[in-house]
Structure formats: structure tokens, C-alpha cells
Amino acid sequence: QVQLVASGGGLVQPGGSLRLSCAASGSISNIYAMDWYRQAPGKQRDLVAGISSAGGTNYAGSVKGRFTISRDNAKKMVYLQMNSLKPADTAVYYCNLRDYIRGGNYWGQGTQVTVSS
Prior knowledge:
The protein has no helices and 11 strands. Strands 2, 4, 5, 6, 9, 10 and 11 form a 7-stranded mixed β-sheet that branches. It is mostly beta strands. The model has no long low-confidence stretch (mean pLDDT 96).
């Protein structure tokens, strides 16, 4: 069984920064992608950033240049450094893992990010 635990959310003023972390545990192969999604109240869950097992990254246009995704394969962690935060970034942030060898698509429990003055 695979578990993902997200942390690092909170309340921050516009222009501030936060760093989200997601720890994966369980039966995971060496070939997996990890993504961050977010869901604002009344809206669908959207992809924010993703990172492949080889380290390739992709970002939503709205966060490009402000957010940076990274991973530590030895620790099975993925991070999301969020800078220059805006009120529009307010949402619950979820981490996701897709295992290409064992199969499976797993979600963390979500962490709330609120950007407000």
C-alpha cells in the first residue's frame, strides 16, 4: 500500500512564500512521477506542477516562474517551493504519485494554502 502525506500549507500574505512537502511510503518502484494539484472552493482540481522520475518538470502557466517543483528520490519526497504568492493561489494542494512499473495512481490528503492580507 502506498501512502502520501502532504505538509507545509498555511496562511501567508500576498507576495510571500511557502514550501510544500509530500512524503511517499510503501511499495513504490523506481520509476514514478509526482505531481502537485490544487483545488479551490467550487472549482475542479487542476495540475500545478509535475516532475518525472528523470527530473523533467512541467508547470501550469499561472505558476510558471513563481513555483518550483523538486524531488528527493532517496527520501521519496517531492517539494513545491511557492514564491510571489497571490490570492488566486489559495486552494487545497494535493500531491499525486503515478507508479509506471507497479501501476497505481495515489493521492495525499491535501494541505490548505491561504494567501490573504
